[in-house]
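User: Here's a chain of 344 residues. Predict its fold as tokens.
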Amino acid sequence: MQILEKVRNLLYPAFEQARTAIHKSGRIWISTHRNPDGDAIGSELALYHALTAIGKKVEIVNCDPTPYNLMFTDKNSIIKSHKDYSFDASYVDLIIIVDLNDSSRLGTLAPIFNESKAFKLLIDHHTEANINVDLSIVNTQATSTGELVYYFLKFLDIDLNSDIAQNLYLAIMTDTGSFRFPRTDASTHKIVADILQYDVNPVDIYEQVYNTNSINSIHILGSALKNITLHYDGKLAIMRISAEMLRSANASNDDIDNFVNHTLSIVGTKIGVMIAEVIGSDELRISIRSKGTYSARKISSHFGGGGHLNAAGARVKNISLDDAYKQIIEFAESVIESTGIKNE
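Assistant: Prediction complete.
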């Protein structure tokens, strides 16, 4: 499949420069944001398998461990976590950062990244980048970082194989909400049609990502659903999860991934928020989803976070669960009112 004309026109110069950087580099470090999701993990591994296939020495080191439901795609434990891996980046020629727009989201790896003299390449689809790199492959209209990686690998004339294709599918599937988010269009499905030629099993990938919950996850989900409150005539739904709730269910913070999606299943809800205390930390995790033109990103930005129009998040410190809850209710009012006026 040829690269779509609009993508080629926008990204061709960056693709050319990135190809040169890769050819000049012997050792490459790939990394992504804290609490990596399917798009992040899939994009990293697709690049890893592609670049090792052309003889490059590649290492993936992330700040946080891979979530349990995404481990299936990394059977050989290629991805290392900085929490339990001593990482020396002094030998690296090229750093490829995927699926983030702010270097602070690299967590404990941020100082290593910022201090490195290696050539730095960003591949991402988020808005308002706040990261110092030498080269960016960024298209905010892309459905996912995985989509951009697909186009880039095609540009490099790297033959896809099962490992590359599975991870590209994982990246695109998860960041399009299983192909239901607004930016999913004919080009998305053309990419997937190409990917599926390489021994990719969509049923298995979906099952691994969304239907491999522990009993503890189900228990905490029950408590979280009971805790949802509605505001502004039901347009805003907020789910709160305390550390005590997690401990009572013997659950971890990984067990609540994707819980926020349940908030949007309520009739009339336009914005859904999950606020969760992080066990063993003074942080709060805020996940936000929305429908239509109601902006999840505006709310996350209020807390120093980021994301997309309909999916965003933030990590905040020095604020209680109750105070964050009150601030979200207060700030969301202007978002709901201004969007409602536009829609009338």
